[in-house]
Automatic annotation (TrEMBL):
Keywords, comma-separated and alphabetical: Acetylation, Cytoplasm, Isomerase, mRNA processing, Nucleus, tRNA processing
GO biological process, one term: mRNA processing
A Pfam family per the record: TruB_N
Single GO term (MF): tRNA pseudouridine(55) synthase activity
Protein's name according to its UniProt entry: Pseudouridylate synthase TRUB1
Function: Pseudouridine synthase that catalyzes pseudouridylation of mRNAs and tRNAs. Mediates pseudouridylation of mRNAs with the consensus sequence 5'-GUUCNANNC-3', harboring a stem-loop structure. Constitutes the major pseudouridine synthase acting on mRNAs. Also catalyzes pseudouridylation of some tRNAs, including synthesis of pseudouridine(55) from uracil-55, in the psi GC loop of a subset of tRNAs. Promotes the processing of pri-let-7 microRNAs (pri-miRNAs) independently of its RNA pseudouridylate synthase activity.
Subcellular location: Cytoplasm, Cytosol; Nucleus
Catalytic activity: uridine(55) in tRNA = pseudouridine(55) in tRNA; a uridine in tRNA = a pseudouridine in tRNA; a uridine in mRNA = a pseudouridine in mRNA
Pseudouridine synthase II N-terminal domain span: 105-254
Name of the top EC class for this enzyme: isomerase
SUPFAM superfamilies: Pseudouridine synthase (SSF55120)
EC number annotated for this UniProt entry: 5.4.99.25
Length: 349
């Protein structure tokens, strides 16, 4: 019986196998159907993903265009303030999926971004940034108080008044004591007169003095002008280096201060390191966003937090998002030089 059943099963299998050629077309069509369906599903899924991505980018772009106010970033040593602003802009554009700058030149300007108070490329610290209507507040940031930690080097003078320049003079400093330095700081506190450095953002005939100097052109020093030093103290002295904590008003140059201190000590000096620890209400530790926080969401949160730091007369009302038909972004850089009443507006994209 078992043998008979086995024979029947065998026969059945043989019959099925033999019948395959007769139904090959049908079987092939049936086998081909799943891949076609899978491909269609993959195409549909990809389309949904692209649609969702576009929707997400559109939402980010709308949020970016709605940002308005003042916040702070942490500028490292190396880039100029303008270069850092450009880096910030590129990160925001990339995150929002905005078109290339070349394309946006033809479109309506919808966003402004700028910084208030230039930091030298060799300096680091707080850089205040205005975005949207916040760019109108940058002048107040420029004229407000700032705080710096500066490390000076005795015995060497340079053409730029800092370590990036060419040494122009060397004098002994071995007789200088901590008491000597502390004893002269009062002369540089309060309302004083200061001659700006030749390598600066101040202008002659529409061009920066630093640009003219780099070209080798003869440049005359600007006349001394009134500046304010709110506080000045010696933090450390390890000859030839001395560390100062300075709080000053707008238009003040730390490089000139350090140079003048060296001269007052019958020697010379230049700035070795410079860090801006505070500008207006913004501090380096609490408010300055590091580069990994240069995102639309992080900046939005910072704007919300920083709005409470500003005086009532400067506080901005929450701005309405731009019209939804604005598809592109064009930028205006407003670079305010570290001088009273002098600002350069650079429109780029």
């Amino acid at each position: 019986m078992a043998a008979a059943e086995a024979a029947v099963l065998s026969s059945s299998l043989e019959t099925d196998t033999a019948s395959v050629p007769e139904t090959a077309g049908t079987a092939a069509a049936t086998a081909a159907t799943p891949p076609v369906s899978a491909a269609a599903a993959a195409v549909a899924a990809a389309a949904r993903t692209r649609s969702e991505a576009r929707g997400s980018k559109a939402a980010l772009a709308t949020k970016l265009l709605s940002l308005s106010g003042v916040f702070a970033v942490h500028k490292p040593k190396g880039p100029t303030s303008a270069e850092l602003l450009n880096r910030l802009k590129e990160k925001l554009l990339a995150e929002a999926g905005m078109p290339s700058p070349e394309w946006t030149k033809r479109k309506k300007q919808t966003l402004k971004i700028g910084h208030g108070g230039t930091l030298d490329s060799a300096a680091r610290g707080v850089l205040v940034v205005g975005i949207g209507r916040g760019t109108k507040m940058l002048t107040s940031m420029l004229s407000g108080s700032k705080r710096y930690i500066a490390i000076g080097e005795l015995g060497k003078a340079t053409d730029t008044l800092d370590s990036t320049g060419k040494v122009t003079e060397e004098k002994p400093y071995d007789k200088i004591t901590q008491e000597d330095i502390e004893g002269i700081l009062q002369k540089f506190t309060g309302n004083i007169m200061q001659v700006p450095p030749l390598y600066s953002a101040l202008k002659k005939d529409g061009q920066r003095l630093s640009t003219l100097m780099k070209r080798g052109e003869a440049v005359e020093a600007k006349p001394a002008r009134p500046v304010t030093v709110y506080s000045l103290s010696l933090q450390k002295f390890q000859p030839p280096f001395f560390t100062l904590d300075v709080e000053c008003g707008g238009g003040f140059y730390i490089r000139s201060l350090v140079s003048d201190i060296g001269k007052e000590l019958s020697s010379c000096a230049n700035v070795l390191e410079l860090t801006r620890t505070k500008q207006g209400p913004f501090t380096l530790e609490e408010h300055a966003l590091p580069e990994d926080k240069w995102t639309i969401d992080d900046i939005a949160q910072s704007l919300e937090h920083c709005s409470s730091l500003l005086p009532a007369e400067l506080a901005l009302k929450k701005s309405k998002p731009e019209e939804s038909n604005e598809q592109v972004l064009s930028c205006e850089y407003i670079t305010l030089d570290e001088t009273k009443g002098e600002d350069a507006i650079i429109k780029t994209c």
